[in-house]
Amino acid sequence: MIPELGNFSLILAFCLASLMVVIPMAGAITNNQLWMSLCRPLSSGIWVFMILSFACLAYAFLKDDFSVNYVARNSNSLLPERYKFAAVWGGHEGSLLLWVLILSSWSYAVSLFSRDLPQDILARVLSVMGIILVGFLLFMLLTSNPFERTLLNPPIDGTDLNPLLQDFGLIVHPPFLYMGYVGFSVAFAFAIAALLSGRLDAAWARWTRPWTNAAWAFLSIGIALGSWWAYYELGWGGWWFWDPVENVSFMPWLVGTALIHSLAVTEKRGVFKSWTVLLAIAAFSLSLLGAFIVRSGVLTSVHSFAVDPARGMVLLTIMLVVIGSSLLLYAIRAPVVKGSASYTLTSREVLLLINNIILVVSTAAVLLGTLYPLIHEAIYGEANRVSIGPPYFNTIFVPLMALLAFALGIGTFSRWKKTSVAYLKQQLSKVLIASLAFGIVIPVVVTSEFNISAIVAVVLALWIVFSIAKDIFNKTSNKESFFKGLKALSLSYYGMQFAHFGMAVTILGVCLTSHYSVERDVRLAPGDSEIIGNYEFIFEGVSLQQGANYQADRAVIRVLQNGNEYITLEPEKRLYYATRATQTEAGIDVGLFRDLFTALGDERGDGSWVVRIHYKPFVLWIWLGAIIMAFGGVLAITDKRYRSKKPVKETQSESGLSVNTATKTNLSAEA
Amino acid sequence: MAAPRKQRMAIVGFIVAGSAIAIGLVLFALNEGINFFYTPTEVAQGAVPDGQNFRIGGMVKTGSLRTGELEGTLVEFLATDCAQDIPVSFTGVLPDLFREGQGVVADGYIDSNGIFQASQILAKHDENYMSAESVAAMEASGASCDP
Amino acid sequence: MNKRALLIIPGLFFIAMLGLLLFGLGRNPNMVPSALVNRPLPEFSLPGLKLNASAATSLIASEDLLGGIRIINFWATWCPPCHIEHPYLVEISEREKGVSFIGVNYKDDLDEARLFLEEKGSPFEKIIVDLDGSLGIDFGVAGAPETFIVDSFGMIRYRHVGVINHQIWEETFAPVISRIK
Hints:
The complex is a heterotrimer.
Chain A: H1 2-30, H2 33-37, H3 39-62, H4 69-74, H5 81-86, H6 92-113, H7 119-143, H8 168-197, H9 202-233, H10 244-269, H11 273-296, H12 309-333, H13 348-380, E1 386-388, H14 390-413, H15 421-447, H16 452-476, H17 482-488, H18 491-516, E2 518-524, E3 529-532, E4 535-546, E5 550-561, E6 564-569, E7 572-576, E8 582-585, E9 587-589, E10 594-603, E11 609-617, H19 619-638, H20 640-643, H21 652-670
Antiparallel strand pairs in A: 2-11, 3-4, 4-5, 5-6, 5-7, 7-8, 9-10, 10-11
Helix pairs in contact in A: 1-3, 1-7, 3-6, 6-7, 6-8, 7-8, 7-12, 8-9, 8-10, 8-11, 9-10, 9-19, 9-21, 10-11, 10-13, 11-12, 13-14, 14-16, 15-16, 16-17, 16-18, 18-19
Chain B: H1 3-33, E1 34-38, H2 40-44, E2 54-60, E3 74-80, E4 85-91, E5 103-110, E6 116-121, H3 132-141
Parallel strand pairs in B: 1-2, 4-6
Antiparallel strand pairs in B: 2-3, 2-5, 3-4, 5-6
Chain C: H1 3-6, H2 9-26, E1 45-47, E2 59-61, E3 69-75, H3 80-95, E4 99-106, H4 110-120, E5 126-130, H5 134-139, E6 146-150, E7 156-161, H6 166-180
Parallel strand pairs in C: 3-4, 4-5
Antiparallel strand pairs in C: 1-2, 3-6, 6-7
C-alpha cells in the first residue's frame, strides 16, 4: 500500500501545482486578493505531499520492497542501510523525484521567507514555479514513475545500486547539486514575475539576490562534492574531466556567478536590467539543459542515466514551453536601455560588466565544447563522430580565468559611477608589486625551479588576496581601532570578500596541483617500493577481503616519511556480487598542503600489481576554495538588509518604492 | 556631450575585440581538443591521416592481451571490430572495465610501425562505438567475438 | 538599429540549440556505422540448420540470398536479448510478407538451437549455421543480436546492433525497407 500512497500523493501534488499555476496568476491579473493569497497554502500543500511521496519511496527502499520496479533496479537486500536510503536518488526516476521535491521546497521557502514581498509579485513568482512543477510532475507521472510495480511474481532480490554510487559522496552530492540547479528557478521566477508585472526595478534585484546567492552556494558545494567524489572514487587521481555531465553543472554556476554580480549593479545602480533578467533566465535554462542532457542520453558520459529518447522528448517539450515562452516574454517586455550612461570606464559598473562578459564567454565556450560532437555529427553525418577532449577546455579556460582574476583585483577598489584612474593606480601599484614579488619568490624558493605557469597562478592568487587585504585595511583605517572597523563592515561585504578569497584558494589549488603533481603508475611486486620526494611507498602485497555486498583485493602500502614510519594506505579494488562490477577505492592520505594518493590498478601476474602513486600538492585547496566561496554566499544572504522589517506596511503598489529608499539608506551607510 | 558616446564606443570596441579574441581562442582550442573517432577497419583502410591523434574503438580481441610478461606497466593487445585487428600499446593502469572480449576506446596515434600508441584507455563504455543499450545487451549475453 | 530587435537574439540562439538537441534525440543510438553498409554480401557457403536433427543438411551460399529483401539476424540461445526479441521477430515475419528473414545461428549449440525454435517458433526462412563465428567476422558483428538489411542485389543496406522491438522496426527498419524496395 505504501508505494500506492506515494503515487497518490504525487498525483495530489500535481493537482495542487496545477491550481498554483492558475489561481494566483488569475488573482494577480484581476487583482483578486483572495486568489492571490491562495498561493501560500498551495505551495505548502505541494511541499507536504512531495515529502510524503519521497518518504514512501525511501520506505520502499529500506523495506526491500522489490515489487517496486525502481527499487528492484537500484537496490539489493545486501546493500547497507545508508546506501539503501541514498539509492532513492541513485537512478533516473528517484533522482527526478528528488529534483521535484527540491523544487517544491524552494517554492515553499519563497512563500515562507517573502513576508514583505508584495502579494501580487509573490503570486506571480509562485505561479511561475508552479508551471515548472507541473511540467516535471507530469514528466514523472507519465514517463518515469518511481512507484511503478510488478505485483505478479516480483523479483526476489534487486539488481543492486551501481557500485560507483555506493559511497558517501553519492549520499550528499546530488541533493546539493539539485539544490543549486533548482534554486536558480527562484531567480528565474522572480525575473518572469518582474517582466509580467512590468516592475523591473531595484527592489526586484534586491529580492532576487539572496535566493540567487543561496542557489549559487549550494551549487558551488555540489560541484565541489562531485569533483571530490570523482577524485577518490574513480581511481584516476583526476578531479575534473570536462565530462558533459560535469560541464552541464558548471555552466549554470558560471552564469549564476555572472548573475550575482549583475544583480549587484541592477540593485545599486538600476542599470543593466535587461541583461540581468536575461542572465536569470539563462541560469535556470542551463539547469534545464543539464537535466535534459543527463536524462536523454544525447551525449555520453559516465553519469548519464539509461537512454530513452521518449524521456528526452518530454524534457525538450518542457524546455520549449518554459524557456521558449520566457525568452518570448523577454523579447517583448524587457526594457530597452535609454541612452544616458552615468558611469565611466573605470567605474565598478564597467568592471562588473567585464566580469560578466568573461563569465558568459566562458559559459559559451563550455557549451560549444559540450555540444560540439552533436554539431559535428549534424554537419558531417553520423559516420563522422568526434569527441572534445580536455585540451580544448583548458586552452580556453586558463586565459579567461586569469583575466577574470586580474579584473577581480581592480574591481575590489573600484567605486560606483566613477573611479579616478590615479586612485586605482595608487592602490593597485602596491598590490601589484607585492603579489609579483611574493608570487615569483615563493614558488622559486620552495621548488627551486622556475615554472612560469605556476608563477603566474601564484601571482594572480596573491593579487586577489592582497587586494582584499588592502581593501579591508582601507575600510577600517579611519576607525578608532582595527576591530571596531571590522565590526562596522556589513556581512554582505564580508560575503563578497570571502567568495573572492575562495576563488583565489581554488585557483591556487587547481594550478599548483596541475603543475607540481608527481604521478607514477608503476608495477610493484610485494616488497618493492617507489620513492617520491621524501616519501617512500612500500608495496606489501594484496589480500582478499570481504565486504557487506562485495569482495575486495586490498593492497597494503606502507608509507615512510624521511625513512620513518608514517602511514599505511589501503587502496581497494572491489567486486560487487550482484552487479559483477569492479570498482576502485583509492587510498588517500589527505593533507592541507599535499595529498598522497594511491590506487590499485590491475594484476600483472606473479603477485605484481600496477599501482598509481600520486603526490598531489594543494589538491585539497580546490574544494576548500569552493567551501569558502559558498560560505561567502551564505554570509551575504544573512546580511541584515535582506531581513529588514522596515515599515513596508504601505499599500502594495508603493512598497516597491519604499524598498528603494531603504536600499538607498543602506547604500549610504556602506559607502 | 561627447563623453557618453565616446564611452559607449569604447565599450562596443571592447566587446568586439573581446569576442574576436574569444572566437580565435575557441577555434584554436577546438583544433587542440578535437578527437576524431575511427574503427579498426577504417584505420586498416588508411582513413586516418598520418600522425593524427584520434580515438579508436573496438573490442579487445580474446587471447591477444599481453601484460605480465612485458616490462613495467606496458600493455599490448589487439583492438578489433571483428573485421580488422589493430595492435595497441599502452603504458599505465588499465581501467576497471577493461577485459578481453569487451569494448574498448583508446586515445592515441599510429606510430611508424603501425602500432596504435594509446595515451589513454577509456574506462567507460563509450557510445561512440556502441550504444549503452547494445553494450548492456552484449554484456548480458556474454557475447564476444573470439575470432 | 532597433534595440528591441537585439532582444530577440537570445530566443533565436535558443531555437538553434533546441533544433540541435532535437537532432541529437532523433539520431539513432543503435545505428552503428559499419564498413559493410552499401557493400555486397561477403562470399560464404555454410551448412543450413534443419529442425529435424537427422535430416540431411544442405549448404547455403551467398548467391542463394539474392533476389529479394533479406533481414539477416545473428542470434544464439546463449544470448538473453535474443530471447527477448525472438517473439517479435516471429510476429513481424508473419506480418511482413515482402521480406524474408534469414537466421544466422551464431556460435551456438545446435541441439539447443533446434529446441529453442521448436518451442518458440521460427521466423526464419533459412537458418545458416555459423559454428566458429567466421561468418560473424565477415559481417563484422561484435555480438548477438545483430541484424542486417540486405537488398535484392545482395547489397548490405543497414546494420542494427541490439534488440529489435516494435518501435525500432517501425522507425528504422520499415523506412529502410520501403526505400530499397
